Amino acid sequence: MKKVLVIGDSCEDIFRYGTCDRLSPEAPVPIFKPTRIIGNGGMAINVFENLKALGIDCDIITNDIRPVKTRYVDEVSNQMLLRVDEKDDVRQINITVLNSIQFGDYDAVVISDYNKGFLSEKDIEQIIYHHQTVFIDTKKEMDEWINGAEFIKINEKEFVLNEKFLKGFYENDVIQTKGKDGAVLNYTERFPIEDQHEVRDLSGAGDTFLAGLVADYVKNADIRSAIRFANRCAAWVVSQKGVAVVNPDKV
Fold this sequence. Notes:
The chain is α/β, with parallel strands linked by helices. It contains 6 helices and 12 strands. Helix 1 packs across helix 5 (205-220).
């Protein structure tokens, strides 16, 4: 069985669902009546859980004390009314932990960097140096420290911020996700979503895409096949409420 290591920031995702039937008489805001609460691990943990769901033997190194993202969601429309973020910064990875990683045990390393403080640019550079198959999804502004990574996964907004660097200095594969328009490999090769689903919630879709990309690549060593599979995973997961883990029987 293929084995993957996930390294990066994690959070707790909490969804408070409820009903909104009237406005407050005190201010023009909806009155929210809670009906249920769903919680799960997010960010790097979401990548990790999706990889496991897809049959990949997986380890994770992440922060123990996690930020909490609480979303208040209307039960009927699935419209998010408010998001509250608490404890948003995390402690940097212990250098002893980083130096003790047995990189040779893994077929691939996934860096899921939400730029909350767990990984510095130097930490990422060290990880990339020690493994030849690194997938990275980072919220940091990119520079030469990222050059050795074999694959960069990036969304449209992040691509605009980093386009000059990527096209001018980065030499390996760039996979840009484009929501309902699928994905693009190396700026020109397009991969549309084959089976569209009704979108109910975009939360965690990028993590699911990354997990699908890695899971298929470590099995088949074909990045184009991996992008198509990742598209299917992300297209299914956005049809679910909240941060859902992909069901391999549905993709």
